Each structure stands twice: as C-alpha cells, then as structure tokens.
Amino acid sequence: MTDGPHRLAVIGAGPAGLAACLAAAARGVRVTLIDAAPAAGGQFYRRPASGLGARRPSALHHRWSTWERLERGLAAHLEAGTVEHLPDHHVWTVERTGQAPGAGPGFTVHALIGPLQEHSVAVRADAVLLATGGYEKVLPFPGWTLPGVVTAGGAQAMLKGGLVVPGHRAVVAGSGPLLLPVATGLAAAGVEVAALVESLDPRRLARAAGALASAPDKAAEGARYAARLLRHRVPFLPRHTVLEAQGEGRLEAVTVAALGPDGRVRPGTERRIPCEALAVGHGMIPHTDLAEALGCRVDGVNVSVDDEQRTAVPGVWAAGETTGIGGVELALAEGHIAGRSAAARLHGTAPDPAARAARVRTRTRRFAATLETMYRPPLHWADQVTDDTVVCRCEEVTAGRVREAVTGLGAGDLRTVKLLTRAGMGWCQGRICEPAVAGLAGCEQTPARRMLARPVPLGELASAGADNGCDGCPPGESPPSAHP
Known about the structure:
Helices cover 31% and strands 20% of the residues. The protein is α/β, with parallel strands linked by helices.
C-alpha cells in the first residue's frame, strides 16, 4: 500500500453502499465506490437512461428526496476527490492480501470492467464494506419458462430503467410486499393489471397488527398502494397461487387457484386469466457470495454482523440486504452505521454512537422480521410442479430428475442432488434454481461457499496473482487512480 489516507472499498452503490460511502468520506477516509451498474443508485433507485428523455423519473419512485440527498452528497465528494466511483465494475472476488505487521489486514478487490466483462482490474484497500444487496427468489411452476413470464423485480426494473412494460395485460402474482409497487407501477404506466394474486391470508396481517404498528410510516405506505389498486380497479385475489402459465410460443394465460388453510390448493377453485405478461415473485435472498468467499459467518442466508455492522472477518463490514432483507430504510441506517464504524476503526478509534440510525435499524429490523414470518411461499408449492417442469434452466434439469435423485438414488442434501443431476452447475451456479431444488428435494438451503462471485475468463483468472496494481487492464489503458 502507498502512504496516505486510509482507503475503504465499498462494493455496491445502492442505498446501503451510498450511505456508507458518504458517512466514511465525511470522516476523513478515502472511499472507492465499486458497482456493477453504469450509475449509482442500485436496484431501488434505478433510473432511465438520459437518452430516453424521461420527464418525471421521480414518478417511478418513492423516497425520491432521499435519493436527491444521496446524489448531491456523492457529487460533492467526487468533486472534492474524497470518493472515487468505479461504475461498470463487476466484482468477482475479494482477497485478503496482508500487509506489514501492525498495518492492518489489507484487501484486493478484483473486478471485471465494462459491459463485455473481458478484462479485470485490481483495487487495493485497507478495509472492505459489502453492500451487495439481494436477488429474487424464483420458484418454478409449469410454463414458467414461457416468454412473457418475468420476475416481479424484473418487471419493475424494465419500467424504472427502460420505460417499457412486459405486456399490455398482466398478472402480478406470488407473495411479498414487492408485489404492491409492481402492480401499481404497471397500472400507472397504462398496463391492464388483470389480477394481483397474493398467497398471503389477509387475516395474518390482522393478527400481526401490534408488531406492524411499530412502523406507522410503512402502514401508511401500504394504505397508499391499496388506494392506487382501487383507483386502477385491479382485482385482488388473496390466498391464491399460480398453478400454470399457458401459451403456444409465448404466454397467453395463467391458471390460478385458491389456497386452503393448510396451504394446499382447493380443488374446483381454478380459474384461467388471459394475459400477455406474468410478473411473479416470492421475496428476496441476500447476496452473500463475496462474504462467504472472504470467510464471513453466515447465519441462515444472512451475513452475520455485530452492532457496528462488522463481520466476523477483521476489516470487513456489511450492510443492507446482504445482512437480511429489510427494505430501503433499514439499508440506509445500516450503511450509515457501517460507514461511521469503518472510518473510526481505520483511524484507530471507537465510533461515536449513531443513536438515531441505531433506533431506525432496531425498529425496521423488527418490522422486517414480522413481514418475513407472514410472507412466505405456499407450504405445498412443490406439489404443483410437474415432473417435466424445468427447474434448472442452465442445465435443463427437470423436477422429475431432482425427485429421482432423492427417492431413487438416495440424495439427502443439495450438494449430492447437484452432483447427481447437474442442477446448479450452469452459468448462474445455482443462485436462481437453488431455492427450488431445495424445496423439491426437501433439503435445507445452506450457504454454498463459492470462490468466484461471477464467471471469469480463464486468462484473467490466471493473471490475477500478478501484483502490478491493475491486473488485466486492457492494452493501452491506464488503471483508475484507486489502484494502489
């Protein structure tokens, strides 16, 4: 490492990463903000490209004033030189490189650059803060691979980032709070939302009224979404689930059915809804690949952190959805606490109490835990998945092959199912199909420690050990100033 101010690498420029970046930079730490997207904001503050000429991008968001504050703060630090933003940098691993005795652990962040991701660079840092967010839980059903079927978050990303919709008539289905902004956003964009299909029994919300009352702003937000659904005359089907997507070559209709108290489909309640698009989602899963590769402790599916957002690995902090799905307010609070802590620890002091952010974190974590217990996929969703339904799209593994691995070949865990069927061995390395394979096999979904967080060209992987400060930069290109 070169002499100078301590350097913190923040991976992820969503709400948590931006809050951490601003908190650390304000306290005298040089921050390198590394993100795969071409612009800061993450999935939550995804915005249309300037060339699309969106006149009111704020109409696609709530908490827009918070984004404007974050954007102004980032711009000020970029101008002052206290923050360097590296967009279009796709981090594939973080390694502990070590330094001189007493100088701290030291880290090297390896990232593929540009849309083609053919060349890698190395960014040095004294500490790392992981704000890598989460991704959607995908559960298969007959017909889910038809064109026109997208995830709920995918439909929202299309609208926010491209000002496009997946179809003129759509069904939004699954379980979880995300369905509300997706349905209302599509309806406001002119889509005829034929139904909002939610597997949750509304009576569970009533039973959790006490816990939900701890976050009145969230209750008010939910009420606003409900009012918009009424205004757009969107039919609401609670305690229902999608059984099948149908169509020749592309989606033409979906079949839904009511769920009984035991979570099973009630015979005779099936109905067919013609549509061109189906946006389906069942919540989110924290993105923990980089944390697992570094050796951070993972509890269940969440990266474990202490009150300062420190992981079990010295010099590594984590904030936002990677420590547990909880929404933007929780991500902002955790990011702020993590940034303050990282700055103080790098300076060799204890962080000042972030009392307000800590209170917000406690309140929103409690609220998120309540929602997690309520919004879950139907207990017996796997019963509706036919043997010929593709589960792992990368390797074209069907549900029948997964079941045969368990009942016929004796597989008792995800790894054995993977070895026997190749489910999870494709491009996504199981990130998409793993929850489905676990559900079909009756196995617990456990963290899979992966050395690499994304596919890497072999040439770049081979050259990553060269300590030249910018591993794999394209010929004729100089490394960004964040490299040593």
